[in-house]
Structure formats: structure tokens, C-alpha cells
Specification:
It is a single chain. Helices cover 51% and strands 16% of the residues. It has helices spanning 13-29, 41-46, 62-67, 69-86, 97-109, 130-136, 148-153, 165-168, 175-182, 199-219, 235-243, 256-261, 272-279, 292-301, 309-314, 329-341, 343-360, 365-387, and strands at residues 5-10, 34-39, 49-53, 90-94, 113-117, 139-142, 158-160, 190-194, 224-228, 249-252, 265-269, 284-288, 321-323. Helix 4 runs parallel beside helix 5 (97-109) and helix 16 (329-341) crosses helix 17. The strands form two sheets. Strands 3-2-1-4-5-6-7 form a seven-stranded parallel β-sheet, sandwiched between helices. It has two domains: 5-162 and 364-387, 3-Layer(aba) Sandwich (Rossmann fold), CATH 3.40.50; 175-360, Rossmann fold, CATH 3.40.50.2000. The two termini are 15 Å apart.
């Protein structure tokens, strides 16, 4: 009996990481399973034959997508060609909905079963698109418990597999050891600058974060700053930019959770990283800055009051969010000093972050996702036998 072939499409760093997690579990269950797809270093390391590097098309914002449309279109053509030629038993789409749903349509035309992992945020904006999603996929795997009811109500097959970060977020070293590895005193006050993993985020947020750090250092020269560089980004170029700022800063590719735990407060882009920071209970503020045209369009579509996943999962504003023009050195430095100096405020924020962990529930998400994949493959195999 031939081994099943699964194709996985992940369009950005967080999806690449989440895909790698369940791929590792799949490998434990079926070591010889054939895996190919679009992704990054994490998927490659987990044993996926990556035929397109997704970091090239990892952008956020409608205008930014238009600027990279040539690369995105090229990626679509490459994926379609691989679908046509290899006809996998199952196509797994990881987040990145606008791109992935187009690939779902092509797979559907070829008779390939489609599993979508990490639901588009239908609960946040454009809720009616859930029906379009349901028409293009065979099954949805959600990572937030509250999402399941949306698909059940729409009559779409759905499984809650849990959030993979609950298991994944752990510290390799204790805080003291992590700081020693980074060359930072255990008594220093440390502020994390987290501009994100997308090139478009780096372009918009890194200069503001540098300016914020410079303003903070002018007030307190003893402060240290930590800047993690995500895989797929140009470490040397970012390090050179940091060196030219005159900041007391460490630019690093050390284990992210050790970097987070070494911080006293963090200014971060929105997205999955806000959950990682919340799970480690480090006070933060969230930055969201895209082109003004993209923002004006998004503001009309979004139906929930929060941008950051930490606040969305907590179902309340547990950390401050700064949008567009609010992302400036004056507002950010003031908030970061509050987070490291005002103990009452700091305690309130940490209590709110504990609520995020509670709402994410129990772990084992990657294993549950792998089991769902194997179940769908077995159902397909049984269906094929029945049709013969």
C-alpha cells in the first residue's frame, strides 16, 4: 500500500511554525508519509519538501499585498502546478486565507480533499464569508474553542484541536540563565522590541521602536533593550541598523521564549506573538501600523473592539493597543515606563494575561491536529476502497 501524500501551504512565519509542530507529530505516527508544500525553515526542518519559500509573500495589509502581487501570483502558479502534477491525498491550508482559499478552489476542481487549519477570523470581520469558506473546504480545524460554534452553526465540518502554543511556549533556561546567555545582567531592566516576522512589519515598526528606545535610554541610561530577529529576516542588516542607533541593545536569534522571559516589558507587533508573550506572563503593549488606505478599509470591516490576539482571547483589553498614528515614540515610551515602574499597573496587566492562559485551555494541540489529519486520510482511503 502506497504511503499517503499530504501537501501543506503556510504563507508566513507563524503558520510555518504551527505546521512544523503537527508535522513532527505526523512523523511519529507515520514516518514514511510524503509531505510537500509552501513554507519556511521550520517546515523544512520538520521534514517537509518545501518547493516555495513563503517568506517572500509574507505581507500584511491590502495595499502591501498589491505591492507584492507579482510574487504572490508566481507563488499561486507554482502551487497550482504542484497540485496538478502530484495530486496529493490531502491539502492542508494553514491560515493565510486570501491566498489559501484560492488554492482550495483549485484543489476542489481536481477532487483533492482540503483541510483548513487555523480559521480565518470570521468572528472579527466579514462574517458572511464563512459560507464561501465552507463551500471550498472539506473540514475546518480551529484553535480557539469559541470558534467551533461559528462553523457548527453554518453546517461546516469542524474540529477544535486546541492552540499549539499552550504546549510549545516553554522556557529552555530560567530567567537568570537566559539573561546570562544574552549577556545581560540579572538586575538590569530590559525592554523587548518585537517588530514582527514580516518584512513589511519591520519596515513600518522597527524605526519607531528604535526611536522609542532612544527616548527611553535618554531618560534612563541603565535600560537594556532586546531585539529578536525572526527566521527568514536579514539578521546582519538588522544588526547593522541597531548598531547605528547608539542604543544599549542586544540583537539576537536565541530561543524566542528565553528572549521573552528575559524582558521586563515588551513593545510588540500584533499577532500570534502576543499570545506567546501572554503565556509567559510578561507585560506588553501592542502595536498595529499598516498603510492608511489598508487601515481605513479594515476599520470598516472589523466587527470586534480589539486588534491583539491576547485581548481577543481574554475578551477584554488586558494590554494597551496603539494603532496607526498612536505608534510613536512619545506614547510608546510612556506606556513602557508605566509597565516597568508602576507596580500596581504592572500587577493588573499580569493578572489580565493570566486570563489569556485560562481561556486558551489545555494543550496537546499538535497531536490532536495530527490525529485529525490521519483520520481524514483514513476516511479517504476507505471511501476509495468502497468505490472500487
Amino acid at each position: 500500500m502506497t504511503q499517503a501524500h499530504v501537501m501543506i501551504l503556510a504563507g508566513e512565519a507563524s503558520g510555518d511554525a504551527h505546521a512544523a509542530e503537527f508535522v513532527e507529530q505526523l512523523r511519529l505516527e507515520q514516518p514514511d508519509i510524503e509531505l510537500s508544500g509552501m513554507g519556511g525553515q521550520a517546515m523544512q526542518k520538520a521534514g517537509v519538501e518545501v518547493f516555495f519559500d513563503s517568506s517572500i509573500i509574507a505581507v500584511v495589509g491590502l495595499v502591501e499585498v498589491l505591492h507584492h502581487w507579482g510574487d504572490i501570483k508566481k507563488a499561486m502558479e507554482i502551487v497550482k502546478q504542484h497540485l496538478d502534477e502530484s495530486r496529493p491525498d490531502l491539502l492542508i491550508l494553514v491560515d493565510y486565507p486570501e491566498f489559501n482559499l484560492k488554492m482550495a478552489r483549485h484543489a476542489q476542481q481536481l477532487g483533492i480533499k482540503v483541510l483548513f487549519y487555523i480559521s480565518p477570523q470570521v468572528w472579527a470581520w466579514r462574517p458572511k464569508r464563512i459560507h464561501k469558506i465552507g463551500s471550498l473546504i472539506d473540514h475546518m480545524a480551529v484553535i480557539f474553542k469559541f470558534e467551533k460554534k461559528y462553523y457548527e452553526n453554518a453546517g461546516i465540518p469542524v474540529s477544535f484541536v486546541g492552540h499549539p502554543l499552550v504546549d510549545k511556549v516553554k522556557i529552555d533556561d530560567d530567567r537568570q540563565a537566559a539573561r546570562e546567555k544574552l549577556g545581560i545582567s540579572t538586575t538590569a531592566r530590559v525592554v523587548g522590541l518585537f517588530p514582527g516576522s514580516r518584512r513589511s512589519e519591520i519596515k513600518r515598526l522597527l524605526p519607531v521602536l528604535f526611536a522609542t528606545a532612544q527616548q527611553m535610554q535618554a531618560r534612563d541610561p541603565t535600560l537594556r533593550f532586546l531585539l529578536p530577529v525572526a527566521p527568514g529576516l536579514d539578521f546582519e542588516a538588522i544588526s547593522e541598523q541597531a548598531a547605528n542607533t547608539g542604543l544599549n541593545i542586544v540583537v539576537t536569534r536565541e530561543q524566542l521564549y528565553d528572549v521573552i522571559s528575559s524582558c521586563d516589558a515588551i513593545a510588540t507587533c500584533s499577532g500570534t506573538v502576543t499570545l506567546e508573550i501572554a503565556l509567559l506572563n510578561i507585560p506588553m503593549c501592542i502595536l498595529y501600523k499598516i498603510s492608511w488606505l489598508s487601515y481605513l478599509i479594515m476599520r470598516r470591516l472589523v466587527t470586534i473592539p480589539h486588534i491583539g490576539l491576547a485581548n481577543i482571547v481574554a475578551d477584554k483589553a488586558v494590554v494597551r493597543e496603539f494603532l496607526q498614528g498612536e505608534v510613536n515614540p512619545e506614547t510608546l515610551s510612556a506606556e513602557l515606563f508605566e509597565l516597568i515602574e508602576n507596580q500596581q499597573y504592572r500587577g493588573d496587566v499580569k493578572a489580565g494575561l493570566a486570563r489569556v492562559r485560562e481561556n486558551l485551555g489545555v494543550g496537546d494541540g499538535a497531536r490532536k491536529m495530527a490525529q485529525l489529519v490521519l483520520s481524514l486520510l483514513e476516511n479517504k482511503r476507505s471511501q476509495n476502497i468502497a468505490e472500487e
